[in-house]
Amino acid sequence: LVVMGSAYVFMFLPFDTAGPYTALANLVLFALIVGAIAAGFLTRRGALVNLGTAFFALDAITRYFDVAWGMLDTSLFFILGGVLLLGGGFMLERARRRLMERFMLVEVPDEG
What we know:
By secondary structure, the protein is an all-alpha fold. Helix content is 79%, strand content 0%. It is built from four helices and no strands. The longest helix has 29 residues, at 75-103. It is flat, with a radius of gyration of 18 Å.
């Protein structure tokens, strides 16, 4: 329904600039990612949770490079961004493992 509704907006409600199309496409993508994670959570399917988490990470990396491309000469930005992405990936993986453990889908050894 989300994809069909956004396709309707894209085709029949034209915007003057590209900004609203970009914002709407990003919102639809985010809604689909959250929907995949929620569906996996509700149906207790680890594959959907993993798929949603993977696409969230891919989207975060894509948005990072979209913002950083204009500041390519600023190496400090990339160093800090890399550290933030590594930390974020670590936290997402721990959250995913805890979620999978709560579902009792896989046995995960305690990390702490």
